[in-house]
Design goal:
Elements (H helix, E strand, L loop, with lengths): L1 H4 L1 H21 L5 H21 L6 H8 L5 H6 L2 H7 L3 E5 L8 E4 L4 E4 L6 H11 L4 E6 L5 H4 L2 H7 L1 E7 L7 H12 L4 E3 L5 E2 L6 E6 L13 E6 L2 E5 L5 H7 L8 E3 L11 H7 L3 E4 L12 H9 L3 E4 H4 L2 E5 L4 E3 L13 H5 L8 H6 L10 H10 L3 E4 L5 E3 L11 E4 H7 L1 E2 L8
Helix pairs in contact: 2-3, 7-9, 9-10
Bound molecules: zinc ion (ZN) (2 copies).
The site of one zinc ion has 7 residues, from helix 8.
Length: 433
């Protein structure tokens, strides 16, 4: 193969063999007409073969063939040595568990980027996490928007580490935390650039990092979120901040299909519209959210939407810090995907009016939404659904709260919704209506 690809051999073959062969053929009277035409076809094919095997651009050919002799001349023209190297470089994206907040670390082979810094108390934890990764300098720090759960630990991080470039949207907030962040930026004389659509961030040659939002100014701070998209060969990551449906609509006008999507605003139903999700078409979704948070994030509707599209969901409230590793072809996760459970799955069983049971044992075994479940995702959903359990007797026409004296002889669990249809509320225990 190497000999076949050598320049001088090609040129000699091309310049000498074919013409010489043809001349010899016509001069030699011993050839009859028929073999002559056969031989001219053979020489013609040989000529074309030489022509196609010749490198079209001669300058890069010797260098690339020296590095990779197994690759033919035609391939080396299309695939630069840089591209071949890139395929081997893995990148890591750490979705840190900062409770109800966001903090994402991106590590390429050359550079690092931090997107958001959790709540105020997370500052120290994040700094020690970064140091444990051997990081003393962050090339890029993005504060997606000025809400506490995104910039809380920022002042601490700015003080503790070297920072190359600070990226934040043109949005201000009147909190002390926001002012502290600005003061730290000033004290360290950091380079600050506005996060806006069109900004390109440099995280080394292996990835392409674009800021694709905000596309305009918003009064709502969540919509003003910096939205970052990173491409690593065939794998892409989308970081949505707390962007709401309005900003999603603006951004959807661009092509933003991404393999891994950090779901906007902790899985709240004010983000992740159907249209947006169907444009991004992620294979994997990350929800950065606190266990038993006061906002009931992520919303049941968002989880349902993701499940309907067979998207693998990873949640920091269930798995803690999640690390995604990409080799440019596929992506692996350090955690198991979240198990989806239908929010109203317990209803049909508990509602069954044929459930005749008056022993106290059956009461304990009767499934109810308040029974403990084996995962936090399951336990948080019934609360959001406000499925309330009340009790009826075998013969009575009223429904009761647990503990009512009328339940002493028989006590059957039933959902409030169903109880309302066939029973009246007890006037003694006054159950929810
Ligand atoms: Zn926010
Ligand atoms: Zn947030």
């Amino acid at each position: 193969m190497k000999f076949y690809n050598t320049d001088w051999f090609m040129w000699i073959a091309l310049v000498l063999f074919a013409p010489v062969g043809i001349i010899l053929m016509w001069k030699n009277k011993r050839f009859s007409k028929r073999p002559a035409s056969v031989i001219s076809v053979i020489f013609g094919i040989w000529f074309l073969l030489c022509l196609t095997a010749l490198p079209t651009d001669r300058t890069p050919q010797p260098a690339s063939s020296a590095e990779s002799p197994r690759i033919s001349a035609a391939q080396t023209v299309n695939e630069s040595p840089l591209q071949q190297q890139n395929v081997n470089k893995t990148i890591k994206v750490h979705y840190l568990d900062v409770g109800q907040g966001d903090c994402i670390l991106v590590q390429t082979s050359e550079k690092t980027m931090l997107i958001d810094a959790g709540n105020k108390d997370d500052g120290k934890t994040i700094v020690s996490y970064l140091k444990a990764q051997g990081i003393s300098k962050l090339d890029i720090v993005v504060a997606t928007h000025p809400h506490e759960d995104h910039i809380g630990g920022m002042a601490e991080i700015i003080k503790a580490l070297d920072i190359g470039l600070f990226v934040m949207p043109n949005a201000v907030h009147t909190t002390t935390l926001f002012e502290n962040m600005l003061t730290s930026i000033e004290d360290k004389k950091l380079d600050v650039v506005e996060a806006r659509c069109g900004l390109i961030l440099d995280l080394g040659p292996n990835v392409v990092v674009n800021c694709i939002g905000p596309t305009k100014e918003y009064e709502d701070l969540n919509n003003a979120s910096a939205v970052i998209r990173m491409e690593h060969d065939n794998i892409s990551f989308l970081f949505c901040g707390d962007m709401q449906k309005q900003a999603e609509e603006e951004i959807s006008k661009r092509v933003i299909r991404s393999t891994v999507m950090k779901i906007g605003h902790h899985g709240s139903d004010t983000s992740t519209s159907i249209a947006f999700l169907d444009v991004v078409k992620p294979t994997y979704a990350i929800i950065s959210v606190g266990k038993n948070n006061n906002y009931q994030h992520p919303s049941v509707s968002t989880l349902k939407l993701l499940n309907e599209r067979n998207i693998n969901v990873y949640r920091t409230d269930e798995s803690g810090t999640i690390i995604a590793t990409s080799d440019g072809k596929s992506v692996k996760f350090s955690a198991q995907p979240s198990k989806y459970s239908e929010p109203e799955q317990t209803k049909p069983d508990t509602d069954s009016s044929s459930q005749i049971s008056n022993s106290s044992n059956s009461v304990n075994s009767a499934p109810s939404p308040s029974s403990p479940s084996n995962s936090s995702s399951q336990s948080s959903k019934p609360a959001e659904q406000t499925t309330v359990t009340v009790y009826v007797t075998n013969t009575g026409a009223k429904y009761h709260s647990d503990g009512c004296r009328y339940l002493s002889k028989s006590r059957n669990a039933i959902s409030l919704d169903n109880a309302r249809k066939s029973y009246d509320p007890c006037s003694v225990c006054n159950p929810p209506k």
